[in-house]
Amino acid sequence: MRIPLAFAPVLLSLTILSTDFLRCQGNDQLQRLSEYLHFKMERDHIPGLAAGIIRKDTIVWSRGFGLQNVEARVPMTPHSVIGVASITKIVTAIAIMQLHEHGKLHLDDPVNKFLPFAVRHPMYPEVDMTISQLLSHTASTSNGPSLWRCYSCNEQPVSQKQWVGAYFLPGGKHYHEEGNSGAAKPGEGFLYSNSG
Predict the structure, then answer these.
(1) Is 55 helix (H, G, I), strand (E, B) or coil?
(2) Nearest in space to 36 (alpha carbons), one of 23, 18, 24, 58
(3) pLDDT per residue over 66-108, tens digit each?
(4) Please, which residues have CB within 8 angstroms of residue 101's CB and are 6 or more apart in sequence?
(5) How far apart are CA 52 and CA 77, in angstroms?
(6) What is the pTM of this model?
(7) What is the rounded CA–CA span in Å between residue 167 and residue 162?
(8) Tens-of-pLDDT digits for all 196 residues of the chain?
(9) Cα gap 175→183, rounded to integer Å
(10) 109: closest CA among 143, 86, 142, 139?
(11) 84 close to 99: Cβ distance less than 8 angstroms
């Protein structure tokens, strides 16, 4: 799986700092983390962010920085709703790799083995899309015209399950044969995909 380069330094730095924190657990480490986040926000013109550190199953530290709404001057908190977008791909990939490590799935399994309906590329209906292809953006799924109209940081008009069916199934409200799929056969080309 490819991590967008814009996120890699931040994720790496936060991982290093949180690892140090877990070793030391001192206020010094929290202060360093806070200073680092303030530095990143100022340098990269980030208006607000929320951060947290989890140890085992417990949140051991969380804090909001900056503003969640600049115009209204609403401060960011650990409970602010944030459109996390592509970062969810990393969390999903970690969960999938954990399932793989426990033998619950194989990366070359067809995705349809785990779905309540069959997802097929309209130009290559005989070719299975695999978990590995979805993780590596080679399944030839695309960001069709309805993707951004349906999802935002606010309330979602439909559940994710409803949306996925409407997006990938022929005849679905958000199905678009050309727009929801890439031109390449699944497994034969890279196409960054949020819908995948």
Answers:
(1) strand
(2) 18
(3) 999 999 999 999 998 877 778 889 989 999 999 999 999 999 9
(4) none
(5) 11
(6) 0.66
(7) 9
(8) 333 333 333 443 444 444 444 454 567 888 998 999 999 999 999 999 999 888 888 999 999 999 999 999 999 999 988 777 788 899 899 999 999 999 999 999 999 999 988 999 999 999 999 999 999 999 999 988 777 666 655 566 677 788 888 889 999 988 888 889 999 999 999 999 888 8
(9) 16
(10) 139
(11) no
Which member of 13, 62, 80, 86 is catalytic?
A: 86
Residue 104 pLDDT? 97
**What DSSP designation does 71 have?**
T
Residue 86 annotated to the active site = yes
Of 39, 87, 40, 38, the C-alpha closest to 66 is 38
Report how far Cα 79 is from the mean position of its chain's Cα atoms.
18
Are the beta carbons of 150 and 157 closer than 8 angstroms? Answer: yes
For residue 57, what pLDDT is reported? 85
**How many residues are recorded in the chain?**
196
Sequence-separated (6 or more) residues with CB below 8 Å from residue 24: none
What kind and span of H or E run contains 54?
Answer: strand 48-55
List the structure tokens of 187: 């497994």
Residue 96 main-chain phi, psi, to 5 deg? -65, -40
Assigned token pair, 19: 């690892």
